[in-house]
Amino acid sequence: MDIMDTARLNIKRHREIKGLRQQDMADKLSMSLRSYQSLESGETKLDIERLERIAEVLETNMEELLRQDGYYIHQEVKEGGNGSGFGLSFRNENTYNYGVEKEIVDKLLEAKDGEMNVLKDENKMLKEEVKYLQEKVDQLMGMVGKKDA
């Protein structure tokens, strides 16, 4: 496998870890979906400038995208094939076993925990703000009621 094949696999891996679709990448890179798909599949050559821009979008560096070590697992889960919609089956023909490195999973979980804590704090502040605003509305309504009397 040459270095650009490695880069394409790493781009796909980083894209999927970030939860981005190919269309998302195409949009961020100001290109058509088909053009992006051609880059990721190897139909179109990946030049250094494009690799650098992709690294920026994926919030990583070119060295990381060119690194040949590590492995990644991608597995699709589909509904059962009997048409009933019950059960799950794994499409083995679309399973790429490049492995998920534990440290990446740990970092993703840590980041998600951090996001959850930020959202919880924001939710708490918003609830307090709603309570404050409701009290102010009640005060204003009380004042309007006194003037009408």
| Total number of strands | 4
With strands numbered from the N-terminus, the spatial order across the biggest sheet is 1-4
> What's the SSE pattern?
HHHHHEEEEH
Query: Please, what is the average pLDDT?
Result: 78
Proportion of β residues?
Answer: 5-15%
User: What is the number of independent domains?
Assistant: 2
Rg (C-alpha, Å) = 24 Å
Distance between the termini: 85 Å
CATH architectural category of the largest domain: Orthogonal Bundle
CATH topology of the largest domain, by name, is 434 Repressor (Amino-terminal Domain)
Question: What oligomeric state do these chains adopt?
Answer: single chain
Shape: elongated
**Fourth-level CATH superfamily of the largest domain:** lambda repressor-like DNA-binding domains
Number of helices: 6
Largest sheet: 2 strands, antiparallel
**Derived structural class:** mainly alpha
**Which spans of ≥5 residues are poorly predicted at pLDDT below 50?**
71-100
Estimated helix fraction: 55-70%
CATH class of the largest domain: Mainly Alpha
Task: Describe this protein's structure.
The protein is mostly helical. It folds into two domains: 3-101, 434 Repressor (Amino-terminal Domain) (Orthogonal Bundle); 102-149. 62% of the residues lie in helices and 7% in strands. It contains six helices and four strands. Strands 1-4 form a two-stranded antiparallel ribbon. It has a two-stranded antiparallel ribbon with strand order 2-3. α2 packs across α3 (33-41). It is elongated. The termini are far apart. Residues 71-100 have low confidence and may be disordered.
